[in-house]
Amino acid sequence: MPLVSLVVLLAEKAPEDEDVVAGWTAFLIFGLLIAAVVFLGFSLTKQLRKVDKAEEAGLYDPSSRKKKRELPVEGAGEDPPPGRPAD
Predict the structure, then answer these.
(1) What is the pLDDT of residues 61-74, one digit of tens each?
(2) 7-44: string of b/e by CB count within 10 Å (b at 16+)?
(3) Nearest C-alpha neighbor of 65 from the set 57, 55, 51
(4) How far apart are CA 13 and CA 47, in angstroms?
(5) Fewest C-beta atoms under 10 Å: which of 28, 32, 55, 72?
(6) Domain assignment of residue 44, given as a range
(7) Is residue 46 part of a domain?
């Protein structure tokens, strides 16, 4: 049987569109992936808090500390552009 006729024969046996559903298995996998992302988010937050506490306790080399700086606020202390009301 040639390859083309085999492919045509297999293509004809495809299920109808209304017969194809994702099912509970896919829903369960999706839910587990969401739970894994939530778990990793909480774990990351916990580790970052531990790092901040260790830095405050002086466990890191003081010469390598990052200086805290404030980000400039765009438009702070300036007049609003024409046609735009002031806040």
Answers:
(1) 767 666 666 777 77
(2) eeeeeeeeeeeeeeeeeeeeeeeeeeeeeeeeeeeeee
(3) 55
(4) 53
(5) 72
(6) 33-60
(7) yes
